[in-house]
Structures are given as structure tokens and as C-alpha cells.
Specification:
- With 199 residues, this protein is mainly alpha-helical.
- The protein folds into 2 domains: 1-60, Arc Repressor Mutant, subunit A, CATH 1.10.10; 71-195, Tetracycline Repressor, domain 2.
- The protein is built from 10 helices and no strands.
- The protein has helices at 8-34, 41-48, 52-59, 62-83, 94-111, 113-120, 130-146, 152-160, 165-174, 179-195.
- The model is unreliable at 1-10 (pLDDT under 50).
- This is AcrR family transcriptional regulator.
- Keywords: DNA-binding.
- InterPro entries: Homeodomain-like_sf (IPR009057), HTH-type_TetR-like_transc_reg (IPR050109), HTH_TetR (IPR001647).
């Protein structure tokens, strides 16, 4: 069997990257114009100039496409809390970093709320993917610094629970809750965490 032409592999990878960028750009335009409800795989494929089968092979379903759309913002958020400036990044106290992280996560979730609602409700455990696991691990690490004798693993889940996109959307849109109130409530929870007796 003959070897493939030189450069064929890299060229295919570049083509795939261009196709992915074109698909995501088309999907973003559709969401901007018609909301998440308008994010139909066939429409995205047509707008991107690819076959529907290609779309399903690459992203799986609408949930996978939604996660691809939010991936870039999530990567920026992760970079900020892992290596960005304090207090969100390293260099501040554990308490200050927890507060900055929770506030930034509120903003990050609200910015793409409809996409996150769709992605998190695609299946019973859809919310608990790689991004959630990283958020949880980071928060648990910080909680362990603030409350060494506490159950940091459980407390991280407790602090993340109010930020589930479906709950946040429900409260913000039908419960009269504001983003500022959500952040203030998280601050109250954090104050309770600090003040709780250990042992």
C-alpha cells in the first residue's frame, strides 16, 4: 500500500478545524437570531455548508453542539481561575478566591444561560461533566484551606448546586431574583462556612 501524500494528515486536520469553526460560527448566528430554540441541527448544517451527518458525527446531538458553543468561554474561565490574576487566580486568601470564583461562575453561567440550560438538561447527569468536575475540584481545594476539618468534597457540591443553569434561569426569570441577589446569597453561604464550628 502506498504511503499517503506528504502533508495529507496535517491538511486534513486544518480542514477539520476550519469546518468546526464554520459550524460553530453558523450555530452562534442562529442562536443570536432565533435563540436556543432555533438551534436545529439541519439548519446549522445548511448554514455551515456541511452535511447533517457530519454534524452528528462531530457533535453527537444538540447538547454536544451547545457544549461546543460554550467551550471557548469555559476555557477562558478556567484559565482565569487557574493562572489568572488574584483574587480569582492564585495569590489571594482561600476565602477571597472562593468568593471571586463563585461570583465569576455566576457571571459566566448567566452569559450563556440558555445554552447551558439546554446542555445541562439533555440527560439526567448531563451537568456533571468535565467542567463541573474541574469547578468542584478547584472549589474543594479552596474550601479545605478555609475549613480544614470540614467535608470540602460535599461543601463544594453544596456551593455549586444553586448555580445549576436550570435553577438559575428559573429564579432569574420567574422568581424575581437578580444576579446581585444570587451573589449576595452565595456570600452569606460562604460566611456560614467560615463561621461554622469545626470538629
Amino acid at each position: 500500500m502506498d504511503a499517503p501524500p506528504a502533508g495529507k494528515g496535517p491538511r486534513e486536520r486544518a480542514d477539520a478545524a476550519r469546518n468546526r469553526a464554520r459550524i460553530l460560527a453558523a450555530a452562534a448566528r442562529i442562536v443570536a437570531a432565533h435563540g436556543v430554540e432555533g438551534l436545529a441541527m439541519a439548519d446549522v448544517a445548511a448554514a455551515a455548508g456541511v452535511g447533517v451527518g457530519t454534524l452528528y458525527r462531530r457533535f453527537g446531538d444538540r447538547s454536544g453542539l451547545a457544549y461546543a458553543l460554550i467551550d471557548e468561554r469555559e476555557r477562558e474561565f478556567q484559565a482565569a481561575f487557574i493562572e489568572g490574576p488574584a483574587p480569582l487566580g492564585p495569590g489571594a486568601s482561600g476565602t477571597a478566591r472562593i468568593r471571586a470564583f463563585l461570583h465569576a461562575l455566576v457571571d459566566r453561567t448567566v452569559a450563556q444561560l440558555d445554552l447551558l440550560v439546554m446542555a445541562e438538561t439533555a440527560s439526567p447527569l448531563a451537568r456533571f461533566g468535565a467542567a463541573y468536575d474541574l469547578h468542584h475540584s478547584h472549589l474543594a481545594m479552596l474550601i479545605a484551606q478555609v475549613k480544614p476539618d470540614g467535608d470540602a468534597y460535599y461543601l463544594a457540591d453544596a456551593l455549586l448546586a444553586p448555580l445549576a443553569a436550570p435553577l438559575l434561569a428559573h429564579r432569574l426569570r420567574t422568581g424575581g431574583v437578580t444576579v446581585e441577589r444570587v451573589k449576595a446569597g452565595l456570600d452569606d453561604l460562604l460566611s456560614g462556612l467560615e463561621a461554622a464550628p469545626t470538629g
